[in-house]
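tl;dr need the bound structure. longer version: we got a ligand (magnesium ion) that a collaborator sent over and nobodys looked at where it sits. i said id run it. heres the input, straight from their email, havent touched it
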Amino acid sequence: MEKTLVILKPGTIQRGMIGKVISRFEEKGLQLAGMKMVWLTDELLSEHYGHLKEKPFFQQVKDSMRVCPVIVCCWEGVEAIQVVRSMAGTTNSRNAAPGTIRGDYSMSVQENIIHTSDSPETAESELKRFFDEKEIYDYSLKNRSSIYAEDEL
Ligand code: UDP
Ligand code: MG
């Protein structure tokens, strides 16, 4: 099973949408393997958004992630990385397809509700960045056989 990182960004917290967003992943059939609230530091965000460091909006994006605490989640499932990524929708929420989380709940490029890992490599390094090993829980939902066929597991 793959594990991937989701961050409920400050916009989700400010707009009272924590439950709604978490429900989307639960209802899909993903399993929550870890979750905590954390006030991110500029230092950690510089690492997390390192691929944007030459962009003029780098500092602004980092500051937007420190308006209030965020909620970091680890979701688990078969091909969870691409499943969660496609549930999020495109970076620019105004272009994000209806039915995606960004497409349904946001109007902005920057204020796009959630972060999701974009590949197996980034999922692994991002989960290490935001979680200690003991904060990721290894268990199996008892209804797994209703979510997947045996040969998919
Ligand atoms: N971002 C922005 N302006 C841009 C591109 C990105 O404000 O032109 C912000 C936005 O919040 C985005 C985050 O920077 O979610 C990380 O950018 P990335 O390209 O990794 O997009 P994502 O993987 O989140 O879709
Ligand atoms: Mg990204």
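gonna send this back to them w/ a short note. Residues 18-28 form the longest helix (11 residues).
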